[in-house]
Amino acid sequence: MSSLQTVLYQSRATLLPDAEVIGGALDDILAGARARNASDRISGVLVYADGMFFQLLEGPADALQATMGRIAADRRHKGVRVLRHAPADARMFPDWPLACVSAANLRESVMGSGNGASMDLERLPADVFAPLLRAILTAPGVPNLATMLRSA
Ligand SMILES: Cc1cc2nc3c(=O)[nH]c(=O)nc-3n(C[C@H](O)[C@H](O)[C@H](O)COP(=O)(O)O)c2cc1C
Q1: What is the pTM of this model?
Q2: What CATH code is assigned to 4-151?
Q3: What is the dihedral of CA 57, 119, 107, 20, to 10 degrees?
C-alpha cells in the first residue's frame, strides 16, 4: 500500500468573479471531486476566497499524485503552486472526501470578528492552514489565528 501524504496548493480561478458563476462552478467541482476522491481514498478541503483556490488533499501517495496531475491541468484555474507536500502520520480530514470552507468563515477565524485588516492567505504558514480549516469544520467556536499560532 502506498504511504499517506498531504498536499496543500494555491491557484488562481480563471472563472468570472461573478457570484453565480463561481457558485455554479464550485458546485460542479465539488460534486465531481467528492465522488472521485471517495473512491480514490482521498480526503481534504477546498477554499475559494477572493479569486483564489486553496486546497488541501491527503491520501495514498500514488492516488494523490494522479489527482494532482488532473487538477493541475484543469482550465478552471491556473498558476497552481504547491505550498506543502509532505508525508502524514494520520489524516486531518478523515470524514471529508472534499469539504468546502467558505471565505467568510475563514476570514472570521483568521482575523477575529470586528477586525478590519485584510486577509492574506498566501502568507499563512502551511502548517497552520490545516489545523485552522479543521477547526472551522469541527468547532462551533472557531479559534482565531493568534490562538492557532500561539499553540503551534
Ligand atoms: C480547484 C479545483 C479543485 C479540484 N479538486 C479535485 C479533487 O479534489 N479531486 C478530483 O478528482 N478532481 C478535482 N478537481 C477536478 C479535476 O481537475 C478534474 O476535472 C477531474 O478530476 C476529472 O478529471 P478527468 O476529466 O481527467 O477524469 C478539481 C478542480 C478544480 C478546478
Answers
A1: 0.87
A2: 3.30.70.100
A3: -80
